[in-house]
Amino acid sequence: MKDLDFSNKTALVVGGSSGIGNGIAHALKDRGATVHVWGTRDAAKDYDGVEGSDLRGLHYDKMDVADFDAIENYTSPFDTLDILVLSQGTVVYNRGEFEMPGWLKVMDVNLNSLMACAAKFDDMLEASKGSLVIISSTAGYHATKGNPSYNASKTGAIGLVRTLGQAWAGRGIRVNGVAPGLVDTKLTKVTTDNPTRREAAISHIPAKRLGTPEDIAGAVLYLASPLASYVCGQTIPVDGGLIL
Ligand SMILES: NC(=O)c1ccc[n+]([C@@H]2O[C@H](COP(=O)([O-])OP(=O)(O)OC[C@H]3O[C@@H](n4cnc5c(N)ncnc54)[C@H](OP(=O)(O)O)[C@@H]3O)[C@@H](O)[C@H]2O)c1
Q: Distance between CA 108 and CA 113 in Å, rounded?
């Protein structure tokens, strides 16, 4: 389908080294885009054999997104950027987010870095009349027991999508988001690798299965494509009906 052909488009998927972001990166690459990804390891080969991380055909750079100066000073290997996907994310378990170090770590990676990345690339996106897609979470729509910072960061991400969507639409940049439900990645192993917790989680999902990175990528492809040319500032839940 012509509208989902991303040939001659350049994309950067932050958090594209793993899980949902990696699935999004491959979905864009498979439809013709040149795709750059960021992750935390030194080199692409450091992800060899890692479950959920396939760096083949992607251009990799290391970036700690909690280092805002490093983002600002980053010299990009691309001159134009059509699609920026922000899929970085972390969580701290065992009540660590109730203490300031854990709270701040999650806020920096999940929320503050979104603005740092958006501000780094907004001029390039304006030049290309491009699209920014932020991966938040259905956690942004309800309380999440034990994870106050994850929750606040995702609620904030949904608000940021609205506000940047409004602020930048006039510059020709469409800003939208996707809020995944439960997807089996290294972020959620605490649930998905535990048979009891996994079955309990699935029992609350109307679609009766976990989501996949490909499920999330479908919504990102739509939002980044001309099919969504009049969609601004919206976050689409992709959750198998979880929060209905
Ligand atoms: N899985 C779910 O059920 C679910 C549900 C709702 C929302 N989400 C959201 O989806 C997004 C992707 O998560 P995922 O489930 O795909 O988890 P994941 O497989 O752990 O991927 C997280 C990505 O973020 C990167 N990252 C983490 N900290 C970073 C840092 N300080 N600097 C740079 N990159 C950093 C990771 O890099 P490395 O590969 O180097 O670790 C990885 O690429 C996150 O925003 C998450 O909150 C996930």
A: 6
In the chain, where are the structural domains located? Answer: 2-182+213-238
Q: Is 191 in the pocket of ligand 1 (CB under 6 A)?
A: no
Query: Is the pLDDT assigned to residue 205 strictly greater than 90?
Result: yes
CATH of 2-182+213-238, one of 3.40.50.2000, 3.40.50.720, 3.40.50.300, 2.160.10.10: 3.40.50.720
Each residue's pLDDT tens digit, 212-236: 999 999 999 999 999 999 999 999 9
- What confidence score (pLDDT) does residue 1 get? 79
pLDDT at 25 over 90: yes
Query: Ligand 1 pocket test: which of 12, 74, 85, 187 has the largest number of ligand atoms within 8 Å of its C-beta?
Result: 187
- The mean pLDDT of the chain is 98
66 lines ligand 1 (CB under 6 A): yes
Q: What atom in ligand 1 is closest to the CA of residue 50?
A: 39
Ligand 1 mean position to 170 CA, how many Å? 30
**Ligand 1 pocket member 12 (CB < 6 A):** no
Q: In sequence order, what are the residues at sequence separation of 6 or more whose Cβ sits closer than 8 angstroms to the Cβ of residue 176?
A: 131, 132, 133, 134, 161, 165, 223, 228, 231, 232, 233, 234, 235, 236
